[in-house]
Write a structure and sequence with these properties.
The complex is a heterodimer of chains A (about 300) and B (about 325). Chain A is mostly helical and about 300 residues long. In chain A, about 70% of the residues lie in helices and about 0% in strands. Chain A is flat, with a radius of gyration of 24 Å. Chain B has about 325 residues and is mainly alpha-helical. Chain B has 13 helices and no strands. Classes of the chains: A mainly alpha (about 300), B mainly alpha (about 325).
Chain lengths: ~300, ~325
């Protein structure tokens, strides 16, 4: 990870001012210094690669059934073993990981967009719009969201595209609340007032002074939102309300594995290990991004 | 103090009523009680099914508003929460289940909050020490483990332990062993069953308290009022205990209320894994059996649990924060 560091060491002048890095390079440099975040990126890329091509490197297909190998432990032919129906766990996990990743990434992006628009919008518009938006957010935070999710998702019987819509619909409130509170305090900051007195245009204030503060929050929420979504999708599918057979996700694989946990532990180990690796990697990346994008950070400025 | 709590409780009561009634309409919209009868042989006609459902107020020939009014008047007048589509009264299921889930949620929340705050305080006062770093690493991993994974891992561990000792050290299924009699054996038996599910909820719940309490106390430690307290001659630990800790606890206790829905969701999965017949299991059963009244009762229970947590944290805020006046 260290190889991306630019080699800049100006030592020709007696008292050199520290070189002013471009913002993007500054972020990259700060992020690259963070070892756990680097490890997170590596793990995530490996998992991403597994989800993308895992189904093609094995000679089995995730929906194929091998009737000569039922409930077989991991071995040379079936790398992660097989389940009771003779499905290859290696390719099934790859497919499940792919499902979970697609759901989590799209929900996370949609959620961040919606909560940014709603949260920042409420803060800038103020007045009655702000009050009503907050009332709706608070009400939605109190209603049993998981119950409603399960109700609706059970009815549409496991279509992952509908699941994306549902998880988005009930996932944006908390982030919107956070973005709203940050935006209201940003609006009142001294440097924003100062810029206003200096006659800087409103759009320029938003772009140069407010978005950089909000942008970090949004990107961090994007990665941590993936974790949250993976966790709720897993819980839903585990209980049988999310992705359903014949389709598989990590949550439904976990539910299958839980039945035979002592007789065939590999059915549980594969999805459980993948899930934990995925969420830990994303959290490490999110923490690294938070440190790198923090405008008040002094880390990695020069040298 | 009493009036303050009463006012807060009234506000929450309105929230519960709104949420419960909204759930009734949602459940009526998405669940179809008729499908419970469609599988039966000989095949029932639509009229027969409607006729069978009518005594339970679930008849599809009634409008939603009519069904809602039937359900609401039963709840308000006789505290009768309705019936499943096959005629099992919801009231016969709830008390036992609510008790089972209530103790799980209460114990899980309390032990998670206590453990998390204790760890947060301990690590914040020893920032960047070995314990702090280790605790941080453990917490990041635990924070990311899905409830189902941790519950199943605990089951695996307990099964291994039981095989190792050749006897049942920890029970992995059910809330009690049938046939245990006498006061003391019953208490021991129940407590033994409680260990693993509570441990599961605690392990997953304490992390956020640990991390937030650590950050809050670190902020408070550098605040002017703590320096002033030191200047009056208090020792470091006295200043932390009486001033910094008290101030940093306020945001933590206010957020206890909003953690209850997450604990309830965790309890649903935990009950499913450990085979507890609580509200969580009832939740999954009612949804898959199109039991509209049962789903609504679960929603009411969840909202009530949140409200209890919120009122308790309001009381704690009044006790801790000198700026809040309870009158």
């Amino acid at each position: 990870m260290i190889t991306t560091l630019p080699t800049s060491a100006p030592d020709d002048s007696p008292a050199p001012p520290p070189p002013r890095l471009g913002r993007a390079r500054l972020y990259v440099r700060r992020f690259a210094r963070n070892r756990p975040a680097g490890a997170g990126v590596v793990i995530f890329l490996v998992l991403f690669g597994y989800a993308a091509i895992g189904g093609h490197v094995s000679r089995w297909n995730w929906s194929d059934q091998d009737f000569l190998a039922l409930t077989e432990p991991p071995g040379a032919s079936h790398w992660f073993g097989t389940n009771q129906g003779g499905n290859d766990v290696f390719t099934q996990s790859a497919h499940g990981l792919q499902r979970s990743l697609v759901i989590a990434l799209s929900v996370s992006v949609l959620t961040v967009v919606i909560s940014a628009v709603v949260g920042a919008g409420a803060a800038y518009l103020g007045g009655r719009v702000e009050r009503w938006t907050l009332a709706v957010i608070h009400f939605l935070l109190v209603v049993p969201a998981f119950l409603i999710l399960a109700l609706v998702s059970n009815r549409v019987s496991g279509d992952w595209r509908v699941l994306i819509l549902l998880l988005t619909l009930f996932g944006w409130m908390f982030t919107a609340r956070v973005i709203w509170s940050v935006s209201t305090s940003l609006r009142e900051r001294d440097y924003v007032l100062m810029a206003e007195f200096m006659g800087v245009s409103r759009r320029r204030i938003v772009a140069r002074h407010i978005i950089p503060h909000l942008g970090a929050l949004l990107i961090v929420n994007l990665t941590l939102g993936v974790v949250t979504t993976v966790l709720s999708e897993t819980a839903l599918s585990f209980l049988g309300f999310g992705v359903k057979t014949p389709d598989v996700s990590l949550g439904s694989l976990l539910a299958d594995g839980s039945v035979t946990i002592s007789s065939a532990p590999w059915l549980f180990a594969a999805p459980a290990g993948l899930l934990v690796l995925l969420t830990v990697a994303l959290t490490l990346i999110g923490d690294g991004l938070r440190d790198a994008l923090d405008p008040t950070s002094t880390a990695g400025g020069h040298g | 103090m009493f009036r303050y709590v009463a006012r807060k409780a009234a506000g929450w009561l309105i929230m519960i009523i709104l949420a419960t009634n909204a759930t009734f309409f949602l459940a009526s919209w998405f669940l179809d009680p008729r499908s419970n009868y469609r599988e039966l042989r000989p095949v029932r006609t639509d009229e027969q099914i409607a006729h069978a459902l009518e005594p339970y107020g679930l008849s599809p020939s009634w409008s939603v508003v009519h069904r809602w009014w039937y359900w609401l008047s039963d709840v308000v007048l006789r505290f009768d929460w309705g019936h499943s589509p096959t005629g099992v009264p919801v009231n016969s299921e709830i008390p036992q289940r609510a008790l089972v889930s209530g103790q799980l949620i209460l114990l899980g929340t309390v032990s998670a909050v206590v453990l998390g705050i204790a760890l947060g305080v301990y690590t914040a006062t020893r920032q960047y020490g070995a314990v702090d770093r280790a605790g941080q690493a453990v917490s990041i991993v635990l924070f990311n483990i899905p409830t189902a994974v941790s519950a199943l891992a605990l089951v695996l561990g307990a099964v291994w332990l039981n095989q190792r000792f050749g006897t049942t050290v920890l029970h992995v299924a059910g809330a009690n062993t049938p046939g245990v009699e006498g006061t003391w054996p019953t208490v021991v038996d129940r407590a033994d069953h409680l260990v693993l599910p509570t441990l599961n909820l605690t392990l997953l719940g304490y992390v956020s308290w640990h991390l937030t309490q650590r950050a809050l106390l670190l902020d408070a430690l550098n605040a002017d009022f703590v320096r002033t307290a030191r200047a009056t001659g208090l020792t470091r630990s006295q200043a932390i205990r009486r001033h910094a800790l008290r101030a940093s606890l306020i945001p933590t206790v206010t957020s206890v209320a909003f953690s209850i829905p997450a604990v309830f969701t965790g309890a649903i999965v935990t009950e499913t894994v450990f085979g507890w017949e609580g509200m969580g299991r009832y939740f999954t059963q009612t949804i898959s059996q199109n039991n509209v009244d049962g789903v609504v009762a679960v929603a009411a229970f969840g909202a009530a649990a949140t409200a209890v947590g919120a009122i308790l944290s309001d009381i704690a805020t009044v006790a801790l924060d000198p700026r809040v006046r309870a009158s």
